[in-house]
Amino acid sequence: MLGLISLLPLAFALAPPTAVVAANTHHSKIVDVKATAPGTKLIVNRPLTTTDVTEIVMAQFAAVSNISSFFDGASVISGTYAISTHTAIPENPLDTCFFAIHGIGADHTYWDFKDPSDDINHYSFVEAATARGYPVVTYDRLGVGASAKPDGADVVQSTIQVEIAHQLIQKVRAGDFEGLKCGKVIGIGHSFGSIQTQAVTANYPADLDGAVLTGYSQELAGLPGAFSAWHSTVANEVSPRFKSNKDTTYWAWASAISGHYGFIYTPGVTASAAKEFEAGKQTYTIGEFLTIFNVQTPARTFKGPVTVVTGQQDTIFCSANCFGGKNGASVLPDVAALYPAVTSFSSNVITNTGHGLNFHIAAPKAYAYILDWAKAEGLEVKPIKGRDEL
């Protein structure tokens, strides 16, 4: 089945308004997640100032990096963490659910993004998926939004995020979300959320039946420039929304223009969408920043279908040109090296789109591709006859 998606259309029209949106039910609840993961002891002199944060970023991306000076061996991260979850269920749900993980600087609303100037809500992956019958489970990662905010150096690292995702997926399969028992689960991530999703497929290959990695590739030459452009700052100095968080290991990018460089391709974004994105930006931690790629490893036994969907002008994962491969080829197929056992790997570059795919005008093209891919791969499973009522 390798290359199956080449049979699908390469471009899609904007999704039309759908009448089933009103029939969706949305449920939000805090879930206590017990998780244990290997961690890294970080040497952090507190409280951090924004000057300290700048020095850490410079150390990370210097030509001769001395980032190892912040590491002091291994640790164990363990605890029970309150995670804010959100479930959208269509009127006649399929037996397949999407489990969505957002990236750095966002929260669960990335998957249900709303441009104030858009009356139809074209930008919401939640609405696009539920219109096709898929329930969608989203959540605020640890340290973000309404979820718990433990120590940002010692606890909120990439490894514990993967373990929390794994535990939540187990709860999805067990019917802990509004009694919704999903026969199949498709993982979908964005950016750091894609790194997390990829790590789940590597460490827990039975968790997911398929994986969608958005805002992602293995071309990382643009990452130092993008991360440096953020001008990472102690979060409580950036916005009144973060004033109550006195932990200086929580950071945010300094301004709208800082976030713009990493996430936005101007011709493909409305001014109102860009403003809405900045208004809703979230924090990230030094622990995540220093361990961001620690969890990425080949998923040697994962066999489910995988697709990668990234904006052509993604500055973080494509150096602003996903067609920067040999002779103008896409760089996205390089991700296949992480999946030696899969029988179906595909990718799609979304034109006129930056890293923050879901708030670009072309987002519906990406959603149509993803949902058509799921159907073509046999993941669009109808409800089992006689299944218990939700």
Binned strand content: 15-25%
Low-confidence stretches: 1-22, 385-389
Oligomer: single chain
Mean pLDDT value? 91
**What is the straight-line distance between the termini?**
34 Å
* Lateral strand order in the biggest sheet: 1-2-4-3-5-6-10-11
What are the secondary-structure elements, in order, as H or E?
A: EHEEHEHEHEHEEHHEHEHEH
- How many extended strands? 11
Structure classification = alpha/beta
Please tell me what the overall shape is.
globular
Largest beta sheet, briefly? 8 strands, mixed
Written description of the protein model:
This protein is α/β, with parallel strands linked by helices. It has 10 helices and 11 strands. The strands form 2 sheets. Strands 1-2-4-3-5-6-10-11 form an 8-stranded mixed sheet, with helices on both faces. β5 (184-190), α4 (192-203) and β6 (210-214) form a beta-alpha-beta unit. It starts with 24 loop residues before the first strand and ends in a 14-residue tail after the last helix. The relative contact order is 0.18. Residues 1-22 and 385-389 have low confidence and may be disordered.
